[in-house]
Amino acid sequence: MAEAPLIMLAAGGTGGHLFPAEALSHALHARGARVMLMTDTRAAGYAGSFPAEALHAVPAATPSGRSPLKMAGAMLKLAQGTFAARRIIGRVKPAVLVGFGGYPTVPPVLGASLAGVRTVIHEQNAVMGRANRFLAGRATLIATGFAEVGGLSDALKAKCRHVGNPVRPAVLEAAEQDYGWPGEGQVRLLVFGGSQGARVMADIVPQAVQLLTDTERARLSIVQQARVEDDARVRGSYDTLGVRATISPFFKDLPAQMAAAHLVIGRSGASTVAELTVIGRPAILVPLPGSLDQDQAANAAFLEKEGGAMRILQADFTPRHLAAELSRMIAQPAHLTTMAANAKSAGIPDAADRLADLVIATAHSQN
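The structure corresponding to this sequence follows.
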């Protein structure tokens, strides 16, 4: 019997990168593989519950900003991380290293390449990010979350394998709940935007709700993520309007909250779009502005094209615009039901299994 392969996963920075890595880890364990995690020193603090037999932290940094000194410091830290990763990889000898994007994965992927270990990079977004673009030429294969990824040369497209974006077991569990319009009853609205996006939701959504009619507001039940500093004013706005609302800076059960919602308002990160499609919920998506890659705009455009979401750019995300769309959607439940079905039809619930099969095949192909 062949020895169980050791797979090193590289992810860090945010939950958006750690969640798909976690889903892949579960799928790899189900196939008898051993799993280790390599992450940056910042993420190591909250990756303690990650399903892996060992966690290795290496230095990493994001080379951004206009300061030459800060840029040089970031490049030095990435170089230090690369040699640290090379030493660890040379010692534990994984069959494959899988990177999940973002600069925390640059040292592990470069370290694996220097050690002669095969690498798979997973690109979550509909446009390849800068870190993955930097690494793509060295990667053995590129697994993609979307069928079409912008900004790739023909040579890189030849390396691509579409697998989808892996989602956590909690998302698959939530996906078992059917979408049901409440008739004339309560309309549940879920509002969230991640650490970078909650402020605009706090600024716009309560004002939009205020512009609705008394009858429309009476039907609403809102679950909204709000930063601690925004909690009082968001809560106060809904209390004044007499709208039922649950406000929190973080929801541990976000997949369950998503499944319970009739409409979601949020950002369009790759994990959010993947979860919306697997669970099958209609959404109003407001891409995070200012990104050089405009990845969230491309993600939202994909789901809008599939008929599962409406994309509103932040410049157009005003209380009056949002109120008009909410009023229209509440009045047309058949449209929301169709959007939910369209979103679900675009989902890939077995993405973690597809990626795991690709990784195991890559591990065996070098034997």
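The longest strand covers residues 34-40.
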